[in-house]
Amino acid sequence: MRRRVLITGAGSGLGRALAVRYAGAGAQVACVDRDPARAEAVAAELAGHGHLALVADVGSDASMDALRDTVLDRWGGVDLLFNNAGIASGGALTATTMEEWRCVLEVNLLGVVRGCLAFLPGMIERGHGHVVNTASFAGLAGAPNMMSYGVAKAAVVALSEQLRAEVADAGVRVSVICPAFFRTRLLESWQGDPRLRRFGEKMMEQAPDTLDEVADRVMAAVERGVFMILPTRREPLRWRLKRWFPEWYFRRLRALARGGRA
């Protein structure tokens, strides 16, 4: 039986790249995106047959319920779930608004929760499956001026850690992806301080990792069952530095907040 893979945010960026790779490996792929044209375009380019182009807004209960019903009717379930859809935001706490917080948390955190609630029960019932949640290195870094985005992504990491322990004995695996900057269309969905968007654009342009490299590393790690996936090349060392030398790391963050050097 072919693996059934569902990817939210599949219309561009990492979601599209993963859809191409899993279809090439023989899986059936459900390409889910808010934009129907994007979902259909990606599904049409995939190798093989039996793929789905579906429209859903991960920030909406009703939309995700409808997605679940459609997928269960067409496929009967999902074997590999990528909760990948997200939006970008940035700015210091005092520059944020409650509207921004609600918007970012609804999509970046509760969108993951909705995906899990929709498809995890079937995995548990069948005794197998894999949930992969896209967070960000921002959720680990504790970096300044990424307030709503970093907090939402940190919550995705915590959710994934807790969920991993909850479902391990049910035969379900959990992974969380924590990349830093690489070139995607994520900034098209920007919320918050426009000056930080320009910073994000610069960081993407200077990133040493390509989209294809990141997608290859993610897929390889998922297939090995790795829990925390750090698919951009600088981040494994940065993560270790934070854990091993927390005060030195904090001084670097203070320098970053001042726009200076440690």
Could you characterize what this model shows?
By secondary structure, the chain is an alpha/beta fold. It has a single domain (4-236), classed as Rossmann fold. 54% of the residues lie in helices and 14% in strands. It contains ten helices and nine strands. Helix 1 packs across helix 8 and helix 3 (61-75) runs parallel beside helix 4 (98-126). The protein is globular, with a radius of gyration of 18 Å. The model has no long low-confidence stretch (mean pLDDT 91).
Write the layout of secondary structure elements.
Elements: E1 4-8, H1 13-24, E2 28-33, H2 36-45, E3 52-55, H3 61-75, E4 80-83, E5 89-90, H4 98-126, E6 129-134, H5 138-141, H6 147-167, E7 172-177, E8 191-192, H7 194-206, H8 211-224, E9 228-229, H9 235-244, H10 246-258
Helix pairs in contact: 1-8, 3-4, 4-6, 9-10
Observed structural traits:
two-stranded parallel ribbon; 7-stranded parallel sheet; alpha/beta; about 260 residues; single chain; Rossmann fold
Helix content: 40-55%
**Top-tier CATH class:** Alpha Beta
CATH architecture: 3-Layer(aba) Sandwich
Helical stretch tally = 10
Strand element count: 9
Distance between the termini: 55 Å
What CATH calls the topology is: Rossmann fold
Describe the global form: globular
Main-sheet strand order equals 3-2-1-4-6-7-9
Order of helices and strands: EHEHEHEEHEHHEEHHEHH
Instruction: Return Rg in Å.
Output: 18 Å
Task: Give the name of the CATH superfamily.
Answer: NAD(P)-binding Rossmann-like Domain
Strand content: 5-15%
Are there runs of 5+ residues with pLDDT below 50, and where? Answer: none
Largest sheet geometry:
7 strands, parallel
Mean pLDDT: 91
